[in-house]
Amino acid sequence: MSVPKPGQHIQIHSYKHNGQLHRVWDSTTILKATQNVVIGANDKTLVTESDGRTWITREPAICYFHSKYWFNIIGMLRNDGVYYYCNISSPFVYDEEEALKYIDYDLDVKVFPDMTYILLDEDEYEQHRREMNYPHVLDQILKNNVNHLLRWIRQRKGPFSPEFIDQWYERYLTYLT
């Protein structure tokens, strides 16, 4: 599998289980990329929804994708601290012709600067699970990965470690000069 290069600007595409395009982030700067991990950053990037609506992100964000875990993590740098938005999703794939891609499975975890968190969109997940006939094994994989993600949050592991977002944001700033 090819990987993007540090400094490269790529799009990020999220899909639904049925293959429908869900959301596109227009430009993310790659900070690190290996076969297993992609770390990127963006700020005030254009986001296009599946219905054509667009919006612009409000603050710098560090994005963490893994090829083995069924979640991705976005750390948003705000004036009062780092907020995380975690998508329960398929592992990423990188299509060098188009974008970094993943399937969004609706369940989200919002993490606040004090590291408290809430699980979001359980009703949306249940609706899509029924409508799109998620196999039982997929339902189990996703629920296991929610638990894995919550352990990372509680243990301050990976992107949740105190220095992670600051370190990668500093790297991002070197690409802006």
From TrEMBL:
HAMAP family: Ntdp (MF_01568). The active site is at residue 23. Keywords: Hydrolase, Magnesium, Metal-binding. It comes from Pontibacillus yanchengensis Y32. Its EC number is 3.6.1.15, 3.6.1.6. This is Nucleoside triphosphate/diphosphate phosphatase. Its cofactor is Mg(2+). SUPFAM superfamilies: FomD-like. Mg(2+) 2 binds at residues 106, 108, 121, 124.
